[in-house]
Design goal:
By secondary structure, the protein is mainly alpha-helical. The chain has 2 domains: 2-127; 178-314, no CATH class. It contains 12 helices and no strands. Helix 8 crosses helix 10 (227-255). The radius of gyration is 21 Å and the shape is globular. It starts with a helix and ends with a helix.
């Protein structure tokens, strides 16, 4: 309903609502895509675990398509990358026959094409706006063409000419955006001054405002927007070692599941839960605050279900 009618049912500020993003039941917080992207593999893993031979069907594929499209129309770019990364890792480490892969990507392509034709601002949110973030020299022209007035009012794209992309200045490229790059630099500088134990959990928000770390407008925020840099800056080397070892443990478990290894094969639901956890802490993606309540919940629910199912398997 929100996607079709451009109406934020639970938003407190209809005039300032970002109509290129869907928040659903979350009102003014645009986290719907993140919730769905993180819970999709868990939901399908439980589907694999619970179904019996009498109930074998392809219904989980339709469920995946529903989740996939929901993440896409949410307009959350990191979440969309996450669900695609989950799908890619599942294909690589679990294996799907070529016919099913072709069918899946064909369906996804036509679904996305239909949505983009119906609402082109989604494409500009996902692609054009991303390019503007990474290449700041495009911003002025982007504003002029689209009447862009800020991230909360991104809707008018009819006059957009993608030829402006030809003006990309690669020498001025940023890591995701100017703001993200500033956060990362500050996190690294904090880590350099607190090598072993970091500055303390949730201390980035205070440290980034100090003169020695502050890098100007929109450089200070509540967290570094990267899981690994959060651990380095707030927990130091000793805290970082734990998540680094855990990260490589997950990769090792998936590698052992490749067809070249005949032993230690994971069941589908086990592999999905490992992939979901791996994607949640993937170091090359922007991320929310690891110490935030709802993100911690989504992270630990994977681990809890995984070890719970392993215990059930051994019984």
């Amino acid at each position: 309903m929100e996607f079709i009618f451009d109406l934020k049912f639970l938003s407190q500020d209809q005039a300032g609502a970002n109509m290129s993003k869907i928040s659903g039941l979350f009102g003014d917080e645009y986290v719907m895509g993140s919730y769905i992207a993180r819970l999709t593999p868990v939901t399908i893993a439980l589907f694999f675990f619970l179904r019996t031979k009498q109930l074998v069907s392809s219904n989980h594929q339709y469920l995946f398509f529903l989740f996939y499209i929901s993440v896409f129309i949410s307009g959350e770019r990191t979440s969309f990358v996450m669900i695609n990364l989950t799908l890619f890792l599942y294909i690589i480490f679990v294996g799907i026959n070529f016919k099913d892969i072709f069918k899946m990507f064909l369906i996804i392509f036509f679904l996305i094409l239909t949505l983009v034709i119906y609402k082109p601002e989604i494409f500009h949110r996902m692609v054009t706006f991303t390019l503007v973030n990474i290449f700041p020299n495009l911003e002025k022209e982007y504003r002029d063409i689209t009447n862009y007035k800020g991230a909360q009012n991104l809707k008018s794209f009819k006059k957009l000419d993608l030829n402006f992309i030809k003006k990309i200045d690669f020498s001025d490229a940023k890591i995701f955006s100017s703001e993200h790059q500033k956060h990362y630099k500050i996190a690294i500088n904090i880590f350099k001054d607190n090598l072993f134990f970091g500055s303390g959990p949730k201390m980035f928000r205070y440290k980034c405002a100090e003169d020695k770390y502050y890098l100007g407008y929109r450089s200070c925020t509540t967290h570094p927007h990267n899981i690994f840099l959060t651990f380095l800056s707030e927990l130091g080397i000793f805290g970082f070692i734990f998540i680094l070892l855990f990260f490589f443990y997950l990769i090792f478990k998936l590698i052992l599941n490749l067809k070249i290894f005949k032993k230690n094969k994971l069941l589908n639901h086990e592999a999905l839960l490992i992939i979901s956890t791996l994607v949640s802490i993937f170091p090359l993606l922007p991320a929310g605050n690891f110490f935030n309540n709802w993100l911690s919940y989504l992270f630990y629910i994977n681990i809890g279900i995984y070890f719970g199912l392993l215990k059930d398997k051994k019984c």
